[in-house]
Amino acid sequence: MATLTPFFAPAGGGGFVNYTCYGTSNTPQGWDAGDWPDILLNISPYTWASLGIVMALSLSVLGAAWGIWITGSTLVGAAVKAPRIKSKNLVSVIFCEATAIFGVIIAIILQGKLSDISVGENDKAPSAICATLFYSGYSIFWAGFAVGATNLASGITVGISGSGCALADAQDPSLFVKILIVEIFGSALGIFGLIVGIIMTQNAQF
After folding, report:
1. Helix, strand, coil percentages in the chain from 3-state DSSP, rounded to 5
2. Which candidate in 46, 93, 200, 204 could, as Cys together with 136 as Cys, close a disulfide (CB 3.0–4.6 Å)?
3. With left for phi above 0 and alpha for psi between -120 and 50, is residue 18 left, alpha or beta?
4. Whole-model pTM?
5. Would you say residue 130 has pLDDT above 50?
6. 147 vs 52, 55, 171, CA distance in Å?
7. Which of 141, 190, 155 is nearest to 65 (CA)?
8. Does domain 42-200 correspond to CATH entry 1.20.120.610?
9. Contact 40, 33 (CB under 8 A)
10. Residues 30-77: pLDDT tens digits?
11. Where are the transmembrane segments (predicted)?
């Protein structure tokens, strides 16, 4: 059972100000001692939320960089033999970069949900405050993970398909548009993750 404790007590009382939640088993000594699931409650909800923001941004940028690495190196190599492909195949690089933009967007949205705790004496009970904090922390964490993972997969998918698109276009220009459709569907994966992440955190608020 998580409890609420103050960082400091304001002079003259006056309600709950700057409180934090923590669990009941801080130092379990072995598998049979303490409440192991409660260890998660000893991690600050702000830590969970911050980790979610970090994963959303870092995994998205990693996916974009990985995709650009794959498709960019192939494009440069194929353009040596077929210079005509270097301009229109840059759209593959743009699709890869879009996954990083999705990560930046969700990171800004999630960061806007973080704020200091300031609860007046007529507001929610400590247990309700604690539940709200952990709900917000976990939802932001998993939303960030979901967005980051989908953008990572999307970036790699677009990179590989973009690489194939450049090679196919170098051999047969009529294949460019057909393979570009595959890239568009791969890029849509990142949009799905972004939408789900926003929905997951719509009720999260510190």
Report:
1. 70, 5, 25
2. 204
3. left
4. 0.79
5. yes
6. 9, 8, 36
7. 155
8. yes
9. no
10. 445 555 666 676 778 888 999 999 999 999 999 999 999 999 999 988
11. 46-69, 90-110, 175-200
